[in-house]
Amino acid sequence: MQAQNYMRPQIIKIIESTKWAAGLSLKEIETLSLYVHVYKADKDTVIVREGRREAYLCLLVEGQVSIMKEGARAEKKRIGGSGAGYTFGEMSLIDGEPRSASVVADEPSTLVVLTGEGFSRLSLEVPRLAFKVLMKISKLISQRLRQTSGALVEHIGG
User: 96: which of 34, 113, 115, 121 is 20 to 30 A away, CA to CA?
Assistant: First the structure.
């Protein structure tokens, strides 16, 4: 991925264009813009690699990605995909554990990235905003767990 040298007003506009802006004031979005980076990923770029320990959350602003999981015989299987507005990488940002899947750009994509270091700084410097971000992440993880549980029940025939 290539870091983009966007000016702060551009980063603010990018964040405002996403669902992450919901529930945040303009002042909070302006503050959050100080802790994130914007990246561009070309088609076929591995944005997240399964098993790695880098802690960062990605908000896909433009583009399409595939979620890939390594199978029992080390073959990669596509387990999902998403487009603009999708967030991934939140689990590693929170727990620091290895990545559970890979994410590959299906087409040129733009991402807003919050690194573990950025989140730590945000937590120390603006704890109220960090709490709001953490609540957004918690809700997202909860929704995904509910979806996964539902899919598991369907798969096992319950």
Answer: 34
